[in-house]
Write a structure and sequence with these properties.
- The complex is a heterodimer.
- By secondary structure, chain A is α/β, with parallel strands linked by helices.
- In chain A, the strands form 3 sheets. Chain A has a 6-stranded parallel sheet with strand order 2-1-3-4-5-11, sandwiched between helices. In chain A, strands 7-6-8-9 form a 4-stranded parallel sheet, with helices on both faces.
- Helix content of chain A is about 45%, strand content about 20%.
- Chain B contains 14 helices and 6 strands.
- By secondary structure, chain B is mainly α.
- In chain B, helix 1 packs antiparallel against helix 14, helix 2 runs parallel beside helix 8 and helix 4 runs antiparallel to helix 5.
- The chains are: A alpha/beta, B mainly alpha.
- The interface between A and B is medium-sized, with 37 and 31 residues.
């Protein structure tokens, strides 16, 4: 048994050695962990890289996190210049500034996978993995309409002013149209707990009656809940967040009346993208095209499937 | 520098200069606009909210007034607050099994924040005074260090205080005496003590002398380095105090905690009439600066007049206007 094991190890090592010339390098460039969702995304990226490096001995990974678009461009240039990457998985900080450098990588012959935020020019990427932003808004709006069949007054907290945020809000507004739900206030909470706490406090001062809140993100929902709690108001029936923060999923699971549901926008989509790129690099399975990850409504019935207690998000 | 606060007209009657009335006038106009636009603006609830949320930046800005008066600058306070909040949460969560939910664990958390604050402030001060590195560079460096540390401590996510502990600690932000919440009381105390220090103590005079002209101050027997070191340590302690008030609000800290607080604090100090180059500082002016900044946000949220995209632009205009008004006054005086 021992010899057999040793033999197989030697065989594997030999195999690795003969493949050594074929070792391919996959660069992964993502925004830094500056808020909850990005933190979850960083966690999933690291976990996936760690796991895939064991699964595919002939794949090398370079992971870089950037705090702004400029730094991300530098990261990508460095990957090309010093690591000679064969594939790039990129979640662009912003579409426009990242388009030319990513285009240069593609023209240099490397495989390009773009995640979540599209580039400004079509046809650069080989694979596009994204969440469904208008779907995220639509599912949220449909849930609101279903929960409030007789209509009602709601306030909306938006994220950081970006195209993503616009798509979500448009999807939401389309879904609640004609339902009798009236949006009496809409402000940017910047996907941030503190900002949302302040904005919600001001909404509560401004409006006598608020029936529900679309916080549109779980971090913002935390701030919203604290503000409602502090004001001692009982007119707000529920708060709908989104993205799938573990604490919020837990509350859905526990049947919390204020958080009856959540809408997914999984930070783990970066794992899908890296995984599919690795498959594309190592096998003959075709992986090019567009892969859209749907936004799912999480209710007490299915919450358990979306609960990852080990993730920081 | 006394001529800065008042100019004397031909008859010898002292009328307050624009640098004194400017900020007060701006604040009064803002309050008037707010009251006209929304009937709830002057409601007790709204006033409490605005004052309580101003307390974090306000407490830090009082410390920043001393640093700037002594000719320094600190860009690290926002990151420092996030780091201290994270550290405090970690220490309290770790001590929970041994101490249990109660007053001792809250005191331990507060002590952690104050000690961490004073150490962080002393580190900035040491690098700036003893090693003679530019304050801008040192605090730019520590700003990055603390921001990374809190991200690392939180593993990229959010550090949350244990739920039972949070419920117990919550009153420190939301409760108070006679309907005035604790952050407002603490903010007021910090301001009163700060004003006494600045205008009546030897330390305040040493700060102004150091910021005005380091060499003259040195030959006038002022220990320039010690004065500067003390201003940074004091600012560190106040960041700790602000964090003690901040943590019970949402019970969490993450990489997005305290982002841009340093710029808000510096802006408040300058709007209030303290000179950015040092040499002259005014604690009560800083308070007005803080209130102006948070009132703009509040008023914009209470009305639908201006697109929310323009909030930052309006704040920017007010900051620049305030400084122009003061410079005009100085040129005339």
């Amino acid at each position: 048994m021992k010899t057999l094991l040793a033999g197989s190890v030697a065989l594997t090592l030999g195999a690795t050695a003969s493949f050594a010339q074929d070792t391919k390098v996959i660069g992964v460039s993502i925004p830094a962990a500056t808020h909850g969702w990005a933190g979850g995304m960083n966690y999933h990226a690291q976990e996936t890289v760690k796991r895939l490096e064991e699964v595919y001995p002939n794949l090398d990974f370079v992971l870089a996190t950037a705090s702004d678009a400029g730094k991300q461009v530098n990261d990508i240039e460095d990957m090309v210049a010093t690591r000679n990457i064969d594939a790039l998985v990129v979640l662009p900080f912003e579409s426009d500034p990242l388009t030319p450098p990513v285009q240069a990588v593609a023209e240099g012959g490397a495989w390009v996978t773009v995640v979540d935020r599209g580039l400004s020019v079509e046809g650069i990427e080989d694979l596009y993995v994204a969440g469904d932003n208008s779907g995220f808004g639509r599912v949220s709006g449909e849930y609101m309409a279903e929960m409030m069949p007789d209509g009602g007054k709601i306030v909306v907290l938006r994220g950081i002013p970006t195209t993503i945020d616009n798509m979500r809000v448009e999807g939401f507004e389309a879904a609640i149209e004609g339902s009798g739900i009236e949006v009496i206030g809409m402000e940017h909470g910047n996907w941030n707990r503190d900002d949302s706490f302040n904005v919600m406090q001001d909404f509560l001062s401004k409006h006598e009656q608020i029936d529900a809140v679309w916080a549109s993100d779980d971090d913002m929902a935390v701030g919203v809940l604290a503000a409602i709690d502090a004001a001692g108001r009982d007119d707000v029936q529920f708060v709908l967040g989104g993205a799938g923060m573990k604490e919020m999923i837990k509350r859905v699971m526990d049947g919390d009346k204020m958080i009856p549901a959540d809408v997914t926008y999984p930070p783990a989509m970066i794992a899908t993208a890296i995984e599919m790129t690795a498959v594309g690099m190592t096998s003959n399975a075709p992986v090019s095209g567009t892969f859209t990850i749907g936004s799912v409504l999480i209710t007490p019935e299915n919450a358990e499937d979306y609960y990852y207690p080990d993730s920081p998000f | 520098m006394a001529s800065d606060t008042a100019i004397t007209d031909k008859t010898g009657f002292r009328i307050p200069s624009m640098s004194v009335i400017g900020p007060i006038l701006a604040l009064a106009i803002l309050i008037l606009i707010g009251a006209l636009l929304n009937p709830n603006f002057l409601g007790a609830g709204n006033i409490t909210n605005v004052l309580a949320r101003s307390a974090f930046i306000g407490i830090i800005a009082v410390g920043m007034t001393f640093v700037i008066t002594a000719g320094g600058l600190d860009l690290s306070v926002g990151s420092m607050a996030a780091f201290i909040a994270g550290l405090m949460i970690l220490v309290m969560n770790a001590a929970l099994p041994t101490l249990g939910v109660g007053v001792p664990i809250i005191l331990l958390g507060m002590l952690t924040a104050l000690v961490a604050g004073v150490l962080a402030g002393l580190l900035n001060g040491f690098l700036i005074t003893t090693l003679g590195i530019e304050a801008f560079i040192v605090t730019l460096g520590t700003m990055g260090i603390y921001r990374s540390l809190v991200t690392w401590l939180a593993d990229g996510g959010t550090l949350s205080l244990d739920f039972g502990l949070r419920t117990f600690y919550r009153p420190v932000y939301f409760d108070g005496i006679l309907g005035i919440s604790w952050p407002i009381i603490v903010f007021a105390l910090v301001v009163i003590i700060g004003e006494i220090f600045m205008s009546r103590s030897r330390f305040g005079r040493h700060c102004a002398a150091t910021g005005s002209n380091e060499h003259v101050a040195h030959y006038s027997n002022v220990n320039v380095n010690r004065t500067r070191l003390l201003t940074y340590a004091m600012l560190g302690v106040l960041v700790g105090v602000a964090t003690i008030m901040y943590v019970p609000r949402l019970g969490s800290a993450s990489a997005s905690t305290g982002v841009l607080w340093e710029l808000e604090a510096i802006a408040a100090v300058i709007i209030g009439g303290t000179v950015l180059q040092g040499g002259f500082g005014r604690v009560w002016g800083t308070v007005i600066g803080v209130l102006i900044l948070s009132l703009i946000d509040n008023i914009l949220n209470l009305t639908d007049l201006v697109s929310p995209y323009l909030n930052g632009a309006i704040q920017g205009v007010i900051i620049i206007l305030a400084v122009i008004l003061q410079r005009e006054a100085k040129a005339k005086g």
